[in-house]
Specification:
The protein is α/β, with parallel strands linked by helices and about 240 residues long. It is built from ten helices and eight strands. An eight-stranded mixed beta sheet has the order 1-4-3-2-5-6-8-7. It binds S-adenosylmethionine. The site of S-adenosylmethionine (SAM) has 22 residues, from β3.
Length: about 240
Amino acid sequence: MKQELAQDLSLPRVLAVPRYLQEVYWWAYVHPNAIRVFERQWLVNAILWGNFSRLRDAALHALTPVQGRLLQIACVYGDLTTRLADGMSKDASLDVVDIVPAQISNLQRKLDGRSGVALFQRDSASLGFADNSYAGTLLFFLLHEQPEAVRRQTLAEALRVTAPGGRIVIADYHCPSRWHPLYYLFRPVLALLEPYALDLWRRDISNWLPEGVKVRVESHRTFFGGLYQLLVLVRE
Ligand SMILES: C[S@@+](CC[C@H](N)C(=O)[O-])C[C@H]1O[C@@H](n2cnc3c(N)ncnc32)[C@H](O)[C@@H]1O
């Protein structure tokens, strides 16, 4: 069965791509050649210093058992979403949003007709879904790409649409230990190519959570000498 390409008629037909994506990440997501260059499993793995599979599996495991209605906020190169869709129980469904239409088309191609998956062009900072719609929400390496104000809004939206008792699973950068060679080598690369990413080296994700929403940290793990983290929150 073909997956649904959903469109909320109350929203403009095509939402504008935010300025930070056009200015900072045009080469990775927006340029017509971006998908041709980056949609390679070995390359996403290399960008994460060989840790893609480990982080992907840890994030998927944190959502297990994959049942109910799930939300993935933003597409990802590689096989994260296809694995997530393949691991869903029969009564589960997955919605995936992204702001760049070409990323949605690319994911639609990768899903290759899998059922139970709906794709939406939405801004993570203003999802447009009802409160408490989802049993689980996944944010895989999105927050470090966003300016602080957008990151706060994205987290607020992720919590708003996740039902009480549901998990919000976040995989992203984290400050490595000072003995880690990449502490010195990778910092200038991130500063140049991903200017908002070092925010996640400086502060905990909890700093950007909205006030007044009850949330519990179920687990927090770091990977690869602390360069990556997996944070699992539960909406209370
Ligand atoms: C989730 S991150 C994943 C990065 C990761 N390095 C990868 O391998 O794909 C990248 C995606 O986030 C999307 N994105 C960035 N800002 C967004 C926003 N405000 N709303 C929705 N999607 C957004 C981009 O269009 C892109 O497809």
